[in-house]
Amino acid sequence: MMSATTGSGGPSTTEADAAAMRAMLGAVLPPVMGMVLLIGIWHLATMNGGSIPTPGKTWDAAAILFADPFYSNGPNDQGIGWNILSSLQRVAIGFGFAALVGIPAGFILGRFATMASMINPIISLLRPVSPLAWLPIGLLVFKKADPAATWTIFICSIWPMIMNTAQGVMRVPQDYLNVARVLNLSEWKIVTKILFPSVLPYMLTGIRLSIGTAWLVIVAAEMLTGGVGIGFWVWDEWNNLKVEHIIIAIFVIGIVGLILEQTLLFLAKQLRMES
Amino acid sequence: MNPEKFVQIEKVGMSFDTKKGKFVALKDIDLNIKQGEFVSLIGHSGCGKSTLLNLIAGLTLPTTGAMLCANREIAGPGPERAVVFQNHSLLPWLTCFENVYLAVERVFAANEPKAQLKDRTTKVLEMVGLAHAIHKYPGEISGGMKQRVGIARALAMEPKVLLMDEPFGALDALTRARLQDELMKICDATKATTVMVTHDVDEAVLLSDRIVMMTNGPAATIGEILHVDLPRPRARLTLAHDPQYMKYRSAVIEFLYAKQSHPLAA
Ligand SMILES: Nc1ncnc2c1ncn2[C@@H]1O[C@H](COP(=O)(O)OP(=O)(O)OP(=O)(O)O)[C@@H](O)[C@H]1O
Ligand SMILES: [Mg+2]
């Protein structure tokens, strides 16, 4: 009897295991194949010499770079780790200020129609401008390269933040606002108990979009301003003609951007599950 | 103050500006509601019941006519006229307790310490039979329970007038019957002046002192008013065979289906 039950249970679990295995393979295999394909094409295109290094050569260079990512030989020769971290720091600061200004501004624009019709034309005018066009203004005002780069991040992050927050505020369900009106809640309570929680998902979308563009822009801004940072590092390695390093930088920038994006998506999902 | 005319609605008309021009939803509404009275608004879909209720709530203002509550003009919404919304309208990020507390705090925080406010909140949730679900979020409870939290929130404000827009519309028949019985008990106990919008003839007869029957829109108005003189407390089981109850019931059905046949059928 006992052996019969285990006997019948045995194969069904292995079957389930096999199904799970197949499902996992199905999810993992195509992306891996895509990567292999990319590297394969890259290898084929570069194996007969030329200025672009092969995947193997790039890998060797990466191994050396990442063996000691945090060395520091003066301001112009620092490990790749330091370069990534200083770029991230600039993004964080510019982005933080943008959130500090953009989110309240978005609330005001969403809540007061006259403010919106006053400010919206200005936003529409400035939003399509490349943030790099603002770099000279930053250099002029701050007199230093580092805050000027941060300033471009601020500029490019603030638009999605304002727009999405304002959108969210305008889309707060009328039902909730009617509750607020019947209870005659104070403006403070309306903001903290009704507007903020219902706008939060929109705000997170804004944050995700701005982090994305901020990471795009920082590379370009650092190329112009110099200093420590992944953007300047790319430029520097171009001047040194270390093409492997440029390719490594492209991958690093991509991976960091991906991590930023996925982290925010994960946060947004957590939030949605809560409410 | 005249308790016979606790809520006064005089020659009230309501029109909306739409893309196709002016749409007259209500016209010439005259109605006085006594203190402690339970009035139902019944009529076909789209005739303007919600519009009238929102006017009493002060959520919208009438285009013509005058509206008074306790001799004061209704100039906007306020906690003395609590609303139970059709779709419960609980804030999903607050627990049942917090949803009700928000209302309690608004009305009583000026005069009472925090402990007393919490006490009020718990009591009113117990009254609607939700003691066990106090700290759950709206997403974690059933539709009937949500509706009860909505009712608790309105009752907790101890409003002068309780306004309900199809409070039981979305519920199954059994839950609906139980909540109707609870509501009757609560209204008997609190002597609340109540205006309820409903589609349901039995619900109207069972709960109301008067049933206001509205004509079809556009430009809907009050067609007939039926006084329901059934003694309270009312029990649904005994009333089901009561000839008086049957008479009221057929009067409403007569109005709805013979005199104001459904707008889509016409
Ligand atoms: N804000 C508005 N703008 C334009 N028309 C409106 C507005 N609100 C209501 N109406 C119109 O007024 C009429 C009455 O609407 P109301 O919601 O009061 O009907 P109702 O009797 O509550 O219907 P139901 O039983 O389906 O809830 C409808 O024809 C509706 O289209
Ligand atoms: Mg309605």
Descriptive notes:
With 275 residues, chain A is an all-alpha fold. Chain A has one domain (77-274): MetI-like (MetI-like fold), CATH 1.10.3720.10. Chain A has 10 helices and no strands. In chain A, helix 5 crosses helix 6 (145-170). The longest helix of chain A is centred in the first third of the chain and has 45 residues, at 2-46. The radius of gyration of chain A is 25 Å and the shape is flat. Chain B has 266 residues and is of the alpha/beta class. Helix content of chain B is 36%, strand content 24%. Chain B has helices at residues 49-57, 96-108, 114-127, 143-156, 173-190, 201-207, 236-239, 243-259, and strands spanning 7-18, 21-33, 38-42, 64-69, 72-73, 81-84, 161-165, 193-198, 210-214, 222-227. In chain B, strand 7 (161-165), helix 5 and strand 8 (193-198) form a beta-alpha-beta unit. In chain B, helix 2 packs across helix 3 (114-127), helix 2 runs parallel beside helix 4 and helix 6 (201-207) packs across helix 8. Chain B is globular, with a radius of gyration of 19 Å. Chain B starts with 6 loop residues before the first strand and ends in a 7-residue tail after the last helix. At the A-B interface, helix 7 and helix 8 of A face strand 6 and helix 2 of B. The site of adenosine-5'-triphosphate has 13 residues of chain B, from strand 1, strand 2 and helix 1.
User: What does the largest sheet of chain B look like?
Assistant: 6 strands, mixed
- Assign an overall shape of chain A: flat
Alpha-carbon distance between the two ends of chain B: 44 Å
Helical/strand content category of chain B: alpha/beta
User: What series of H and E elements makes up the topology of chain B?
Assistant: EEEHEEEHHHEHEHEEHH
Q: Identify the bound ligands.
A: adenosine-5'-triphosphate, magnesium ion
Task: Report on the biggest sheet of chain A.
Answer: none
- Percent in helix of chain A: over 70%
Strand element count of chain B = 10
CATH class wording of chain A = Mainly Alpha
Q: Kindly provide the radius of gyration of chain B, computed on alpha-carbon positions and rounded to a whole number of angstroms.
A: 19 Å
Write the H/E string of chain A, N to C.
Answer: HHHHHHHHHH
* Low-pLDDT residue spans of chain A: 1-9
The number of helical segments of chain B is 8
Portion in beta strands of chain A: under 5%
What is the CA-CA span between the terminal residues of chain A?
Answer: 49 Å
Write down how many β-strands of chain A occur, each being a DSSP E stretch of 2 or more residues. 0
